[in-house]
Amino acid sequence: METFITIIAGILFTVGTYLILNKNLLRIILGITIFSHATHLMLLAINGLKKGAAPLLGENAASYTDPVPQALILTSIVISFALTAFLLVLGYRTYVELGTDNMKHLRGNSHE
């Protein structure tokens, strides 16, 4: 199962990289979002999928699942959601103020 998740994460990394390298601002934001989700899947796959054990049972537990990777992924999901919301607002304000979302036009003139 970890191999399948790693392959899916690789596909998402590829799609995210393709979108980040685009000229459209909205596609760049979408690429960053897909890239962060690929990172979450990669962290999940690296940790390994463990079944049947609770995160913490006590000091004498024979087996348990490490809760730290899941906590890191949840924190990363919240941070990526906030980053996506900020980038969407920034992209919207850029479009309203300048009338374009093309990165080539947003670069400015060479003599500035």
Task: Give structural notes.
By secondary structure, the chain is an all-alpha fold. Helix content is 69%, strand content 0%. The protein has helices spanning 2-20, 25-47, 68-98, 103-106. The chain is elongated and about 70 Å long.
In short:
The protein is mostly helical.
Q: Averaging pLDDT over every residue, what do you get? A: 86
Helix content class = 55-70%
The counted number of beta strands is 0
Residue windows where pLDDT falls under 50 for at least 5 positions? none
Strand percent estimate: under 5%
Structural class: mainly alpha
Q: Enumerate how many helices there are, as a single number.
A: 4
Major sheet attributes? none
Give the overall silhouette: elongated
Alpha-carbon distance between the two ends: 53 Å
Tell me the radius of gyration: 20 Å
Key traits:
single chain, 112 residues, mainly alpha, 69% helix, elongated
What is this structure's SSE topology?
Elements: H1 2-20, H2 25-47, H3 68-98, H4 103-106
